[in-house]
Amino acid sequence: MEILKIEHLSKIYGTGESAVKALDDVSFTVQKGEFVAIIGPSGSGKSTLLHLLGGVDRPSSGKVLVENTDIYALDETRLAIFRRRQIGLIYQFFNLIPTLTVKENMTLPLLLDNQQEDKKQFDGLVKTLNLEHRLNHLPNQLSGGQQQRVSIGRAIISNPAIMLADEPTGNLDSRNSSEIIDLLKMLNKTYRQTLIVITHDERIALQADRIISIEDGRIAKDEVIR
Ligand code: ADP
Ligand code: ADP
Residue limits of the ABC transporter domain (predicted)? Predict the structure, then answer.
């Protein structure tokens, strides 16, 4: 099943002399359950692409269809709801709210959506993330690896169509990086969670099902590797 379809996506920042074409007519599709790595030099347009897939920014032209919904045809309110329910975003620097506990950070998307947490499901997730004894801690009381596990919990708690990660291991040492990648792979394989990860780390890219290389805002290569 096709979960994501990108059609002729372009993004230009600024206008006139200072305009920058960050994405230039990019099209591809992603199947449910795929693990896609996006690689490419700094400034090639990877983050721009990820933000457009996540409904965080608006394209200059082209479409993003998630489960057949043309997300940029939605008004702002509906787009915000779409983001909260269907997109799980994971960042390099975790982006946790420092004044909220681990549990509060993880369940924030449910709270914002007026949804009750399912206790059994939540406990299962906490166990998977190995955060049982950290639920009442604040983010700054946790190691980097633990903080990233909290942010993965927050990303997956509303059972999103797609998880998007921008350099999820960029701020972690190699042991914690392996742990985070193993966790993402496990979520991908066990729950068929569709996963798109930007990475500079070749060891991570080689664990994906498919590698898309971006250069100068275009797809330079798109290879299925397993
Ligand atoms: P990458 O993630 O591959 O490093 P980006 O998507 O961040 O690339 O950037 C692609 C291009 O767009 C770069 O030339 C960058 O300078 C430019 N760019 C990114 N964000 C903005 C912005 N908000 N305003 C202006 N230019 C931007
Ligand atoms: P990890 O368990 O990911 O290898 P560390 O070795 O950095 O993490 O930390 C060991 C333990 O110490 C962790 O369980 C973590 O909760 C705790 N810890 C790490 N940093 C802090 C901190 N700044 N304040 C309180 N506890 C911390």
Answer: 4-224
Structure tokens at 88: 């799980």
- Output phi, psi for 78, to 5 deg: -70, -35
Q: Is the ipTM of this complex over 0.85?
A: no
Pocket of ligand 2 (CB under 6 A): 141-143, 145-146, 176
Domain 31-47+73-224, classified CATH 3.40.50.300, yes or no: yes
pLDDT in tens, 144-159: 999 999 999 999 999 9
CA-48 nearest atom, ligand 1: 6
Distance 6 CA to ligand 2 centre (A): 41
**CB–CB of 183/129 below 8 Å?**
yes
Tell me the pTM. 0.89
